[in-house]
Amino acid sequence: MRDYSAKVSSGTAAAAGEPLGSLVYEPFYGLREKPFSLSADPRFLFRSPSHGPAFDALFAGIRRREGLIVLTGEIGTGKTTLCRSALQQLDRRTFSAFVPDPFVSREDLLKTLLLEFGVISVGDLTRGRFQGASRSDLSFLLYEFLDSLVPLQAFAVVVIDEAQNLSLPLIEEIRILSELERREKLLQVVLVGQPELRANLKLPQMRQVNQRVSVHCELTALGRQATGGYVNHRVFIAGLGESWVEFTQDAIDAIFQGSGGVPRLINRICDRALVHGHAAQCLRIDASFVWGAIEELGLRPAAETHAPARVEPIAPPLITPHPSAERPPLVDFVSEAAPIEEHPATVARSSTGRVWVAGLVASLIAFSACLAGIAWYQGTQTVAATVEAPILPPRPASSHTEPVAALPLVKPAVPDPPPVEASVPAAAAPAADRGPFSIVVASFSNQARAERLVEELTIAGYRARAVERDWGPPRGRMVQVNVEGYASAIDVQRDLQRIRELPGGYSDARIVER
């Protein structure tokens, strides 16, 4: 394993896939690339309770060559990242095109598809070869390309982003393209947009398109727990499981409050919080850094932002004294309060009632004194019983202004090695839930490396566990990482392909059957 910490300390670290000059705080935290970039990188897809099912439905709809597929979600919920991740998982017999601009004409849409599918080149467009080409001319080239895929048992898919802004003529063109088929559909169309897209499809003039929608997925914002998983997932991917930064639970709560669980806003807040933490030379990101980032980004009005200058224990709220606290003694207060009692509904009350109230107050005072005496006696007994207990020194309060040398490097905790044949991760499925199929991802002689892979797979949504086995000479004892719980050969084959494409490079993963 490469000694990345030495490279960081010498200031010569270079992140994988990232220019060295583009990294600011990343080397300080042991990160190889930007963890909270706003670009739609499919490697950072987090399978939340909303994104995981949406990804599976989208991917399955494309593979089955369904009718129109519609994916909706609010701004910043990760629709583009989800689509690019699904396209990346397709095999080589699937040709894909991504159209980010919905404000095009029908001819421009056809040119974009021909360019994305490799039928024409950029040079053809710049030299004006298709200048003035009609819709029929361009459609003929597209149909010819799609027909050529039939003998290869291949097909094409097009994803149109921001589809809520499509014009009616362009929607009609998309409907015609989605109906191209012989024995099987030749072109799969995926419409991606904001919730307005669903409302547009319900308009009377859109009923022909709406009737052809076979899969409808919707992305929602992350919950509080999923927000923490999202932040830790991106840090894990950017640091290849070896980063040193830690977001406290209070920081995660503040991120959720400031972002509302929207992934794009989470990225912006976390990026600014890491900038502030780097300036303070702190590896531990607490709520003060997050609230500072929220206020700096202007995501919440200043009146609603409860950003503490430092993370301190929450003090009890100050109680404003009632005006009666400044009055004379209690007996005089009762006599002063008498005019208040002379309401029209109670003007007939006599002085006997006032004497009764004074007696009741005196009784309450005596009862309170009795309770105080009992509490004092119990307190003395508790002190006597615990006087010989060891007194631990108080834990010093953390502060983000401490120098980095005073803080330990935050790395993932590695549990003690388990006994032979013992499962280690909590995410492993119980025996009753395991199917006949499982995936053997990798085997390691190092227990800690196997633990990191289990954590990586668990964060990615797989039911992974590590099992120590004795293979005999010459291999000896090895720690084998398995992903279990598959009842269907189709499901296990699908996840095998995904695991083989993980950044760690597990191309030797294989399927075993019990």
Please render the helix and strand layout as text.
Layout: H1 4-10, H2 51-64, E1 68-73, H3 79-88, E2 94-99, H4 106-116, H5 122-126, H6 135-149, E3 155-160, H7 168-178, E4 187-193, H8 196-201, H9 207-210, E5 213-219, H10 224-238, E6 246-247, H11 249-259, H12 263-279, E7 284-285, H13 287-297, H14 330-341, H15 351-386, E8 437-444, H16 447-459, E9 464-470, E10 477-486, H17 489-500, E11 510-513
Parallel strand pairs: 1-4, 1-5, 2-3, 3-4, 6-7
Antiparallel strand pairs: 8-10, 8-11, 9-10
Helix pairs in contact: 2-3, 4-6, 10-11, 11-12, 11-13, 12-13
The biggest beta sheet is recorded as: 5 strands, parallel
Q: How many beta-strand elements?
A: 11
Note poorly predicted spans.
Answer: 1-17, 301-353, 380-433
**Integer count of domains:** 3
H-E order: HHEHEHHHEHEHHEHEHHEHHHEHEEHE
Instruction: Please state the CA-atom Rg, rounded to the nearest Å.
Output: 33 Å
Number of helices: 17
Using the alpha-carbon principal axes, give the shape: globular
Helix content: 40-55%
CATH architecture of the largest domain: 3-Layer(aba) Sandwich
| Major beta sheet, strand line-up | 2-3-4-1-5
Strand content: 5-15%
Average the pLDDT over all residues and give the rounded result.
Answer: 75
State the CATH topology of the largest domain: Rossmann fold
Identify the CATH class of the largest domain: Alpha Beta
Brief descriptors of the model:
Alpha-Beta Plaits, 11 strands, alpha/beta, five-stranded parallel sheet, Helicase, Ruva Protein, domain 3, disordered N terminus, four-stranded antiparallel sheet
